Task: structure prediction
Amino acid sequence: MIGLMAQSSPEYSVEKPSVEDAPSNIAILGRYIINPAIMEAIEETEPGKKGEIQLTDALKILSQREAMYAYVFEGKRYDVGNKLGFLEATVEFALNREDLREDFLNYLEKVIEVEKERINK
Result:
């Protein structure tokens, strides 16, 4: 997650900040439309955290050369970069689809029943 200041300006971006160091409660969810000029900015980017070149740092460079825009949405954010977040997103997505909901709920109920039996043995 990349934290951004309320100004939503790349110069305020922080790569994977701790909760204490996060400058705001706004995040970049890792979906970008970037023109090819980013490649030059990446080449100019010095290694950051853990010696890795961070896209965040390249975006800061690029933002000094051209306008950058963000889409702010309200909704639930899933961290699909970890296993539990991916599973949560998948389950909730399936349950929100009319064509999957009933069959998937039946499946989940069977899985839960089997797991309860296994635990209670």
Remarks:
- Strands lie at 2-4, 14-15, 26-28.
- The longest strand covers residues 2-4.
- The radius of gyration is 20 Å.
- Residues 12 and 111 are 45 Å apart (CA to CA).
